[in-house]
Amino acid sequence: MMYFIALIMILIGWMFTYTGRICSDKEKDINSLALDGTNAIETEGFLKVLEIRSTRYSFECDCEISFKSENGRNLRYNKTFFGLDSSASFLRKCERRGEVPVTIIYDKKFIC
Fold this sequence. Notes:
- This protein is an alpha+beta fold.
- The chain is 38% helix and 38% strand.
- The protein has helices at 2-36, 88-94, and strands at 40-54, 59-68, 74-82, 99-107.
- It has a four-stranded antiparallel beta sheet.
- A hairpin with a 5-residue loop joins strand 2 (59-68) and strand 3.
- It is flat, with a radius of gyration of 18 Å.
């Protein structure tokens, strides 16, 4: 019985380590964009939750992100967030609030 409990604890520890590594890689990507500074633009925009689909074991959220680029164009993007990509509680709070103001950091070389 003790070996079974030890094995379960090792598996749970491995899962947390793997999840932490995934989150760390995403943070490194964001930090590299922000620290570069030459192409990074920070602007105010809006997040609108279009639809939330959740079951007992999964979470998906369709959102629309809109902001004004540095050259004055209004841009809108539809993006699907999954349970591991974002904070589900934040998106659930935004569901019935319409457009929520957010800060957006984007790379200007990808926006023509």
